[in-house]
Protein: Glutamine--fructose-6-phosphate aminotransferase [isomerizing]
Amino acid sequence: NLQDYGHYMLKEIMEQPEAIKRTLKDRLTESGVVIPEVDDFFAKRKLTDPERIIIVASGTSHHAGMIGKKILETMLDIPVEAAIASEFRCEHGRLDEKTLVIAISQSGETADTISALKEAKKSGAAVIAISNYRKSTLARKSDCVIYTHAGPELAVAATKAYTTQITALVLLSIVLAKKLHGSGEGQIPALLDALHSLADDVEKCLVMTQDAIDQFAQVTNDQEHLFLIGRGLDYVLALEGALKLQEVAYLHADAYAAGEMKHGTMALITPGVPVIALATQEHLRDKAINNIKEVKARDAYVVGITTTGDDEVSAVVDEVLYIPEAHPFLMPVLAAIPLQLLAYYAGIVRGYDVDRPRNLAKSLTVE
Ligand code: M6R
Structure:
């Protein structure tokens, strides 16, 4: 209950293990994944062979969509695009009956996302929605809805919405890989294992990072800028971390693909500037370490987020935050936890209304 936390945002961050369990309930079984809505959809639409997938969404839901793009592209052998809904509705590439559109919206009422969906339907594309709200406009207008079952999210900042959306996308990717015989089918057993322990791993992240993040938030109090860097899925996560810090702590936080720093942004790295370096993707770790060394050489204050026991990352950063190791596709769920907590504590330290940030609304019903 709210009194235990003081703010909806913290309450909702803490609710994530339970929210994820609800997303997985009755869908994740001992032997695989069952989403009857998706089976019905394929049966009715006879969409046996989509040629491309476009994921449309706004804000944090778009970041979940960008994660989904990388997962679906790896699991299926179909080009996948993650489009910003407000851009997509103005300009988009080819759309037809062979296109599968996945529209993601927590509220299901975001005007930009609904306009994108209408645009897609006009061209004959099939639409699967991922939403948290039954009877929302998005749910009503889509051919199929996968509900996230995150429970009400009242803080303006999306937290459990994001982690449950990624969870739903991973479930969907497993179902689609089976149906479409995607080359990622081989990854399914490992993904199932990771999904079975996901809620517990999120719980561990909360315990492992909360105090250290609370302390680091004090350091950000007199800072004007903060950078987040990462590669691959860690880059997308950096974008989400930056959005949260801008929204809740009014801190100028910017995310960069770590390898891009040398192409311009490195000029902004001065002694003491805080940099959060995400290094959760095992196959990109060596490159991530090189990028960390580059910012350290300019005397940035680097906090590394990596998996438990990674001594190589901890050796090159000022502070390290360990999180449990999971399948790479699920690391953006786990590593989101310290970033959400950072936005929350930084907002509190700076004295802001973390649940109702200025100039923003929970549901954007105008374009
Ligand atoms: O309800 P939606 O998922 O469609 O909302 C989309 C964005 O407005 C939302 O995710 C926004 O970016 C969050 N407040 C960010 O924390």
In short: The beta strands are 52-57, 80-84, 99-105, 126-131, 144-147, 225-230, 252-257, 274-279, 301-307, 319-323.
